[in-house]
Amino acid sequence: MAHSCSSAARSSPRRATGTYAPPTPLQDLHNLDFLELCGSQAKAGAALAVHQSTVCRSVQLMQQQFQLLPDPGRKVCRHGHSECLDYLRLAYRAHRLMGGLLRIGTDLLHQALLVGIDGVQQVPARFRSGGHWAELLRHGLLDGAIVSSFCLERRLPTGAIPQWDGVAALPLGQLALQLLTASPDTQRVLLPRRMSMPLLHEAIEWHGYGVDQQPAACPEPAAWLKRARDRKLALPVCPELLGAGWIDAHGLTPLADQPALIEQLWLLLPQGAVNGSAPRKCLRRLRSQIAMAQTLQA
Predict the structure, then answer these.
(1) pTM here?
(2) Is 76 contained in some domain?
(3) Which of 1, 26, 140, 297 is most buried as measured by Cβ atoms within 10 A of its Cβ?
(4) pLDDT digits (tens, 9 = 90+) for 189-241
(5) Measured between alpha carbons, how far is 133 from 146 in angstroms, rounded to an integer?
(6) CATH number, domain containing residue 201
(7) Does residue 226 sit within a domain?
(8) Contact 136, 160 (CB under 8 A)
(9) In terms of residue numbers, what domain contains 251?
């Protein structure tokens, strides 16, 4: 019964001419990947524009056919892992690259950098540590990630590049974050979990601000804005990435006493993909967008 149900989920996807869709034999893997990246069947279904039962059937079939044992304690591949699955994910990555597509992830602060870039398959924004992003690349769940120096475990010397096995970190440039709020007298800031951005926590606390942490189960922008407003908290934001009028539209103002929150950004890529046409094109576009934001901040 599970096999017949999953056959419907694997039906050939409909797509417009010139757009990318996963090959039919890899549709179940595609759904499993988004479950790993989104964290729940409901959120994966929303990101994929399918019912969560479709995601459930895909996961059941993959676990059955590839003998995957769930391990909720893992950061990556919580729904099962095997050498065969690794090779299958790398084959799927090769197919995406062959089609000129990169699956790139980043956090909520930098998701706007990916909007409108051709050849990018976006995934829902999530805050993760630098090592977590690198592990997602190594397992083939992502083809790239925009990573901030604030998500590293420790500060790097000026000009140094973070190092992870099998992953290349390509510099994108620097940006300054601002603290925005609807409560100008606040002395507290809403941040992601410390394990995701430890150096941002360190910087905020060093400047004398208190910290509240946004629950990982509420990653959507509306949830961040609501919690900040309800609890009279400030938010770290790069307004130049969000477009004119974003601050006014949400009734936010910069804190009068702005700490220096300068971050270095890198694009993480698999070492074997750095010189490909799609990665180089994406790298040029991201560097151009960050340079424009720097000009606005000057």
Answers:
(1) 0.87
(2) no
(3) 140
(4) 999 999 999 999 999 999 999 999 999 888 999 999 999 999 999 999 999 99
(5) 9
(6) 3.40.190.10
(7) yes
(8) no
(9) 175-263
Task: Output the CA angle 150-162-175, nearest 5 degrees.
Answer: 40
Sequential DSSP letters for 105-170:
E--TTTGGGGTT-TTEEE-------HHHHHHHHHTTS-SEEEEEGGGSSSPPPTT----BTTEEEE
Number of neighbouring beta carbons within 10 Å of residue 157:
5
Note the pLDDT tens digit of each residue in 7-45: 333 333 334 445 777 878 889 999 999 999 998 999 999
Looking at the 3D structure of the chain, how many domains does it have? 1
Alpha-carbon distance 115 to 285, whole Å?
11
Query: What do you get for the CA distance between the two ends of the chain, in Å?
Result: 62
Q: Residues 6 or more apart from 251 whose CB is under 8 A from it?
A: 182
Backbone φ and ψ of 221, nearest 5° = -55, -40
Which amino acid, one-letter code, is at 292?
M
Looking at residue 253, its amino acid is T
Distance CA 164, CA 265 (A): 15
Residue where the block lists tokens 């949400």:
250
Q: Is residue 239 in a domain?
A: yes
